[in-house]
Design a protein that fits this description.
The protein is α+β, with helices and mostly antiparallel strands. The protein folds into two domains: about 200 residues, Protein Transport Mog1p, Chain A, CATH 3.40.1000.70; about 80 residues, Immunoglobulin-like (Sandwich). The protein is built from four helices and 16 strands. It has a seven-stranded antiparallel beta sheet with strand order 1-2-3-7-6-5-4, with helices on both faces. It has a four-stranded antiparallel beta sheet with strand order 13-12-15-16, with no helix packed on it. A three-stranded antiparallel beta sheet has the order 9-10-14, with no helix packed on it. It is elongated, with a radius of gyration of 26 Å.
């Protein structure tokens, strides 16, 4: 697998020439890039060839994990996979860098410069004529994607590879595969779908502190809910609930979905609480306040 080893050395070049902009906000610590990249469980029987956090200017965190596959994967007979993710502080940053990659790869001059860097990195015995760079593709992966197919000849061996950059929200990902056959889209789509799912798991709303209620639990008085704190920027909404005197058997109060609630006569002898729901594109989470005192 000498050709595989050579191509394993050029992964770091894939974002060469991309524009760099400052991330606009710190990302919550709940987003763990090591859990976004492909995991060993995604490729049963594969050997982890390398793993490391990969810092890059303008990103909050990043990670790369690579695999040697003992059993060829898919119709492409993939034998090597590298999965890298970079987490930006804002969606705009990830969009900007993917746009820069797209611009470079759509340019024949840009692809030639990229090829020159690949040849330079590969070292002795590898010449430009041994590398064929295909035209970029735009597969429907994540929110947007760019794929660059390449083929190399190394010591009489023909090796097929593909570099796929794709964005999911504020995460810029790279999937790099090497196969014994021409890389087919179905294999790329399956592997990238695993990364997309992992990103979604990390970006679901996370409740860090519950909402609170202020005011007096008396009939006719107005109670006010104050939002708790959340990670992953969800949209928030309230639902007031009527509970028994012990704070159990809680049921939704119909229509009570704003930050304020006027205590009704039917609440006498009961307690009240508010549930806050956090929703973003990746899912929904809820947390509730402590109960009020018994309504008088």
């Amino acid at each position: 697998m000498a050709g595989t080893q050579v191509f394993g050395r050029v992964v770091a070049l894939v974002t060469a020439g991309a524009a760099v902009a400052a991330a606009s906000a710190a990302l919550a610590a709940t987003a763990d890039p090591s859990q976004m990249a492909l995991r060993p469980a995604d490729l049963p029987g594969a050997k982890v060839a390398g793993r490391a956090p990969k810092a890059r200017t303008g990103y909050v965190s990043s990670y790369e994990r690579s695999f040697d596959l003992g059993q060829p994967y898919g119709r492409s007979h993939i034998v090597y996979v590298s999965s890298g993710v970079e987490v930006a502080g804002a969606v705009a940053k990830a969009k900007l860098d993917l746009a820069a990659v797209r611009t470079v790869m759509r340019s024949s001059k840009g692809r030639e410069q990229f090829a020159a860097e690949v040849v330079k990195s590969a070292g002795k015995g590898f010449k430009r004529k041994d590398l064929t760079v295909g035209k970029p593709l735009t597969p429907q992966l994540g929110d947007e994607a760019v794929e660059l197919p390449l083929t190399l000849k190394y010591k009489g061996i023909r090796v097929y590879t593909a570099l796929t950059w794709f964005r999911v929200d504020r995460v810029l990902s790279l999937l790099y595969v090497v196969g014994a056959r021409a890389v087919v889209q179905a294999d790329i789509a399956k592997l990238t779908s695993l990364v997309v799912a992992h990103v979604g798991e990390q970006f679901v709303p996370v409740a860090d502190a519950p909402p609170t209620i202020s005011g007096t639990a008396q009939q006719g008085q107005t109670l006010t809910a104050t939002s708790g704190t959340w990670s992953n920027s969800p949209s928030l909404g309230f639902q007031w609930q009527h509970c028994d005197a012990a704070g159990a058997s809680c049921i939704d109060v119909p229509g009570a979905t704003t930050a304020t609630y006027v205590v009704a006569s039917t609440d006498a002898g009961a307690t009240l609480r508010v549930v806050e729901n956090g929703t973003n594109r990746f899912g929904t989470a809820s947390m509730q306040s402590v109960q009020t005192a018994v309504v008088t």
